[in-house]
Amino acid sequence: QVQLVESGGGLVQAGGSLRLSCVASGRTFSTSPMAWFRQGPGKVREVVATICWSGRSTYYVDSVKGLVTISRDNSKNTVYMQMNRLQPEDTAVYYCSASTRDLVPLRLYKSDYWGQGTQVTVSS
Q1: Alpha carbon distance 1, 73 (integer Å)
Q2: Cα separation of 67 and 82, whole Å?
Q3: pLDDT tens digits, residue range 24-52?
Q4: How distant, in Å, are the alpha carbons of 73, 83, 100 from that of 30?
Q5: What is the longest distance spanned by two Cα atoms in the chain?
Q6: pLDDT tens digits for 59-106?
Q7: Residues whose CB is less than 8 angstroms from the CB of residue 82 and which lie 6 or more positions away in sequence, other chains included
Q8: Per DSSP, which regions of 26-91 are E strands?
Q9: Of 38, 48, 67, the residue nearest 107 (C-alpha)
Q10: Contact 9, 122 (CB under 8 A)
Q11: What would the DSSP string read from start to end of 78-101?
C-alpha cells in the first residue's frame, strides 16, 4: 500500500537545473526521514541527500554540497530535490526513499521504502 512516486526528471544540458519531486501515498510520512539516492550507469546506488522528519536537518554527500537542496512539505507528503549546475556525471536514475528509523544519524540513513525512480540525463 505504501507508494513513493518520483517526477521531474528529464534531459538537461550541462549547467542546467532540475527539481525532482516525490509524493508519498497510502501512509503518512510526516514523521519519517526521507532521502534521495541515485544510480548511474555501471555504478552502485548511492545516497545523495537525506532530510529529517521536520525538514530542519539535512545531510549531503560531499560531491553535491552547494549544488543540491533537499526539502519537504509534510502537508503534501512531498519531498523535493533542487539540483543546480548539473554535469554529465550526474546522469543517473534518481530514487526517492523513506525510512522508519528516525533516531539514526542522517549520514547513516537506511532505506525502508523505495520509489521506482526518475531518469536524469545531462548532456554536454
Answers
A1: 21
A2: 8
A3: 987 766 668 999 999 999 999 999 999 99
A4: 9, 23, 11
A5: 41
A6: 999 999 999 999 999 999 999 999 999 999 999 999 999 998 888 999
A7: 17, 18, 19, 68, 69, 70, 71
A8: 34-39, 46-51, 58-60, 68-73, 78-83
A9: 48
A10: no
A11: EEEEEE-S--GGG-EEEEEEE-S-
Q: Which amino acid is at 41?
A: P
Amino acid identity of 47?
V
Grid-cell match 530514487, residue found: 95
Q: Give me 104's grid cell.
A: 539514526
Residue 9 CB-density burial (10 A; 0-12 exposed, 13-18 middle, 19+ buried):
middle
Residue 56 pLDDT level (bands cut at 50, 70, 90): very high
Cell numbers describing residue 55: 525538514
Cell 501515498, residue?
Answer: 25
* Residue 77 identity (one-letter amino acid): N
C-alpha cell read off for 72: 519537504
Count of residues in the chain: 124
Nearest in space to 64 (alpha carbons), one of 12, 5, 18 = 18
Task: Say whether 47 sits in a helix, a strand or coil.
Answer: strand
